Amino acid sequence: MLDRSSKFPTATTDDSLTEMLRGLRLDGVDYGRCELAAPWGIRFLAQEAARFHFICGTCWLRAPDGEWIELKRGDAVLLPRGIEHALASAPGEPLSPLETYSVREVCHCVYDVWGGGRGETTILFCGSLKFNLDAMHPLLRLMPDVMRIDALTASEPAIPHLLEAMAREVGASRVGSGGVLARLADVLAALIIRSWVEHGCGDTSGWMAAVRHPAIGRVIAAIHLDPEKNWTVDTLARVMGASRSGFAQQFHSVVGETPARYLTQVRMHQARQWLSRDRMRISIVARRLGYDSEAAFSRAFKRVIGAPPSHYRGAEEPGIGIRSEK
């Protein structure tokens, strides 16, 4: 559900990143402080929730393509779609699931993790982040598989204080620590995304290009803030301040798909949330999104989501856990 209560600028401003992040919130978080002595290696299997890692020390990341990348103190990694990856004290170390290490649940969804050998110690702050949008929502799908920030603390001086506060919550075992950590993780995720955008990590296509393109960014922000609106290519072109044909061509060039297709995807993922989380009737969702009939809505929904609306009506959203692997 999009947060309509926040007092942010309207989508006509140039701060499209602020507007796009309005629709991206955390519904849950598992958080862990890992103290690991070399040699060690952890395999993180694919999961629906996003993952983040903040490095205090040095370690290596095995990216989805199999390449090993050195991470140093202050680096941070966000994997928006929770794809499979690994962290290790050195490339090629044997990898084991996180649950094979010593794990102590400090409080609900908050863990202390330790283990490894007798060598140099590295501390990791790791978390599973369950966004309010599913992993294949267009906003998350346009993000890269791995968002790596080098020396995040240099560009975001608030990060050390934020992580210190998170570490205190882990160690204090106080009532409500899980909720406090979820809010701190929400801020941390936003800071990682902002730093990644500002400092040019990644390529110049997809989500990065959309955010950096002021006019296209305004259009995407407008769609996400009000997916129920009767948007047409003409009205979206007016948001951008361009002709219909010029807008359609530029949108496709930057985002990689037509405005109509992107809008339909956003609407169907919003519909999925209304059905599964808010328990709305299919007829109400169809009418709310401007469809003349439930049948027409169902066909569009199945084409985008891959299953009929009835499959999600009343379905529970899966939970996440730092020790749960898919």
From TrEMBL:
Transmembrane segments: none annotated. It holds the Pfam family HTH_18. InterPro entries: AraC_lig (IPR032783), AraC_XylS_family_regulators (IPR050204), Homeodomain-like_sf (IPR009057), HTH_AraC (IPR018060), HTH_AraC-typ_CS (IPR018062), RmlC-like_jellyroll (IPR014710), RmlC_Cupin_sf (IPR011051), Tscrpt_reg_AraC-type_HTH (IPR020449). One of its GO terms (molecular function) is sequence-specific DNA binding. Keywords: DNA-binding, Plasmid, Transcription, Transcription regulation. The keyword Transcription applies. The keyword Secreted does not apply. SMART domains: HTH_ARAC (SM00342). Residues 217-315 form the HTH araC/xylS-type domain. This is AraC family transcriptional regulator protein. It comes from Rhizobium fredii.
